[in-house]
Amino acid sequence: MNELIPLGGNTFPVSSEYKGMIENIEASMPAITKDMSNFHKSHSQYMTSLLDITAITPIRRVKHILAEINKTKLALEEAYIGQSKSDINLRRKEEELFRVENPHDRDLLELEILEAKLHKENGKNAIQGAIRKLSYLVTQYNEVLSKLGKDHITEEEYEKEEEKFHIMTAMKQALCAARARGGIIDEGNHIYLFDMGINGAVAQKEVLAFLEMEQQLLQQGKEPNNAHVMLWLEAVSNKFLGSGKKKTEDFGFLLFDEKSLVKSE
After folding, report:
1. pLDDT at residue 31, as a whole number
2. Percentage of the chain modeled with pLDDT above 90
3. CB-based contacts of 189: which residues, under 8 Å, 6+ apart?
4. Percent composition of the chain: helix, strand, coil (DSSP 3-state, to 5)
5. Cα separation of 262 and 264, whole Å?
6. Are 53 and 65 in contact, with CB atoms under 8 Å apart?
7. Dihedral, 125, 65, 139, 153 alpha carbons, nearest 10
8. Binning pLDDT at 50, 70 and 90, where does residue 246 land?
9. pTM over 0.85
10. Do 168 and 233 form a contact (C-beta atoms < 8 A)?
């Protein structure tokens, strides 16, 4: 026989044999609800910092952070408007409840009010998670600017860093591919390098030289780390800077056009 058993402020028609299970759930639910609030965001701070925002140059990281800030801000604005509409709709239904005489219509309206309240609570959790994410992203934005010694980034600075970003990204990917391919750069990154005006044979030579240097360190009982990789990437990016200029000139393009930039005041 079914009973109306309370759970989470609501009642559920279930068999009496479930009563002990429901009581167990109800006893733990306050702590569970509190702990669940820690996870009402898409990604952890660790994942955002190391696995989501992976741009290898600082201004590109700023660009990615700003894109995430904008996306989160837009989601918050939409959520606020949605919550505001839901609040108005909920108040209307609660006012309507006093005027409904048919018992079946009243029961349905009470369920709609319950549904609206549950949606409101879930929406609140999502908004709070998004606010924490937005706060974290703003902190990261300020941290990167502080490290650069700047209070903002100009469009000119962004455009001028792009060549270095793409060279370092291509060589990072080439190195990772070479580690898994016996030291050989894969076809995709050879195409990437070619499109930037960088000779693949020269890039291959640089990768092999770096891998050999790592092996020498290991043989000496030392362990190479990512700091070695970053120093190498800086060096090879400086070596290849300007490679794209000749290619764009051959195409009849300008690699950098100051007249087409918004000037910072």
Report:
1. 83
2. 55
3. 170, 173, 174, 177
4. 75, 5, 20
5. 6
6. yes
7. -150
8. confident
9. no
10. yes
For residue 11, which phi and psi values (nearest 5 degrees)? -115, 145
Q: Compute the distance between CA of residue 171 and CA of residue 236 in angstroms, rounded to an integer.
A: 8
Q: What is the rounded CA–CA span in Å between residue 207 and residue 165?
A: 17
- Which residues, 6+ apart, have CB-to-CB distance to 147 below 8 Å? 58
Looking at this protein, which amino acid is placed at residue 128?
Q
Q: How many CB atoms lie within 10 A of CB 150?
A: 14
Beta carbons of 177 and 186 less than 8 angstroms apart: yes
Q: Considering all CA atoms of the chain, what is the largest pairwise distance in Å, rounded to the nearest integer?
A: 88
**Distance separating alpha carbons of residues 110 and 116, to the nearest angstrom:** 10
Give the number of other Cβ atoms within 10 Å of residue 154's Cβ. Answer: 15
Separation CA 45–CA 214 (nearest Å): 31
Pairing of strands 10-15, 2-7: antiparallel
The owner of tokens 């400086």 is: 238
Positive/negative CA dihedral, 39, 41, 42, 44: negative
Q: State the pLDDT at residue 1.
A: 43
Q: What residues pair up with 13 in beta bridges, in sequence order? A: 4
DSSP per residue, 156-182: HHHHHHHHHHHHHHHHHHHHHHHHTTT
The C-alpha angle with vertex 91 and arms to 89 and 92, in degrees rounded to 5, equals 65
Q: How many CA atoms lie within 13 A of 74 on its CB side?
A: 6
The Cα–Cα gap between 85 and 160 comes to: 45
Beta-strand (E) ranges in the chain? 2-7, 10-15
Structural tokens at position 123: 């929406």
Contact between 175 and 210 (Cβ < 8 Å):
yes
